[in-house]
Model the fold of this input.
Amino acid sequence: MSIILLIILIILVVGALPTWPHSASWGYYPSGTLGIVLIVLLILALTGRI
Done:
């Protein structure tokens, strides 16, 4: 389960980088979503649910 979460997080980090010209107008949306996902996973890990 933790390996799957790690792979998903790596994909999200790569996807949040605005390196492509078409994603320059997206603003903070991808990185903001990634931040929320990381906070939720951190809270779940600290409470022992993961």
Q: What stands out?
A: The chain has a mean pLDDT of 75.
